[in-house]
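Field reference: sequence -> structure
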Amino acid sequence: MLLTAAAEAIIRRLAAERPEGKLFRNKWGKPWTTGRLNERCAGLKLDFHFFRYALRHTWITEALERGVDPVTLAILAGHRDTTMICRVYQHLARVPGHLKASLMKATGGEAAAKAG
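Structure field:
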C-alpha cells in the first residue's frame, strides 16, 4: 500500500501501539466506525456525514483535477483498469476550465492559447 510519509508515520506508530488491529479509535479505545463518526459529528453540531464512498470519490476527483493520470490513479485506487475512473469521473468535463487547462497541459499551452 502506498502512503504519504506523514500517513505512513501515523500508521506505523498506531500499529506498534495496537498490534491486534483496529488502529483508529476514540478516546475510550473503541474503534471508529462510520456510525460513531456520524454520531460525533452530530454531537458537535456539524452538518456533515461520513460516507466511505463520498470520501473516496472526492479523493479521486481531486486527484484528477490536480492532473494525476487515470492509469496511475486507477492503480492507486485499487481498480484493475481505468474503466471505472473513466465512467464515474467523466463529469470533470463539465467543470469550468478543466478541459482548457488539460488542453494547455497536453499541448504545452500553444493550442489552448489559440483556441481561447
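Note: Residues 1-50 form one domain.
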